[in-house]
Amino acid sequence: MKIILFCLPLFGKAVIQKLIDQGTPPSFIVGPAQDHPSFDEMLKIAHGFNLPVLIFEHSLTEKIFVKRINELSPDLIIVTSYPHFIPEAIFSAVKIAAVNAHPSLLPDYRGAHPYFHVVKNGEKETGVTLHLLDEGFDTGEIISQKKFKLNARETTGSLEKNTTSVVVSVVADFVKQVKASGLPKTQKQPTGLYFKAPRVKLPLASIDWRLTANQIDQLIRAANPHYAVKTHLNNESIVIFSGRPVESTSNNKISGQIEAIDEQGMRVSTSDGAYLITSLICPYHWHGDPLGAFELGLIQEGECFSSEAV
Q1: I need a surface site. Which of 70, 208, 219, 265 has the fewest CB within 10 A?
Q2: CATH number for the domain including 288?
Q3: What is the DSSP letter of 83?
């Protein structure tokens, strides 16, 4: 069975290894465009498995690349965590099916970065959906879904890692099933209003300290480790990396006010309690714990961060 795998390092290495182990190795690997940050790493991974790589310069619609895919006439095209939209000229070249392993429970969180939005919205579970490719973005008919629960302190980074084994399992089971009995039954995605997962624009807007401590915590965990969540103090931007909701110790609290700074961190008032910041950056001055920034005179108890909507 001829399989072309479109992938990035995030899931690519583990998926390749599993397919090789079960006796259904990919015939060709397609990494990202040559100017993508992961191009060299994906090339090394493919060569490490002694697998040939199909390369395009900027776009999957390049005539030479499309011609090569069609000449190969693969049985399956499998897409995992891929940064480029797959055009019909590519996915229509398959004999059996072209599928994508999307890291959410479609039709919820259809889009470029479901991890961020899943964590930010405080979801308790997520999953992986294997679906057929079509002319839309994550809109094709569903082949299978596998759910799993999020950890209580999940971040975007940890969720990406935790999703890997699920993607590997879903893809491997699908290939095994196709080899044994052909393409399984599919079902159309439900229509209606569902959560979306658009690409996150950088930098993120400032924290709105009028939100609850949990909402602020979800945003900061969703941003970790790829994005920067900012807040403003005395016309300076401060980047918040980590923290957790705690009880407020102030009787006359104002949302965004610094209640206390000590060895544990910096306690900031929110609408329903407080948020304990444990790691931050004061640009050009300090990167680390809030107490160090306090000792440098960069932040003071009683000062207020501005509250701007995210």
Answers
A1: 70
A2: 3.10.25.10
A3: S
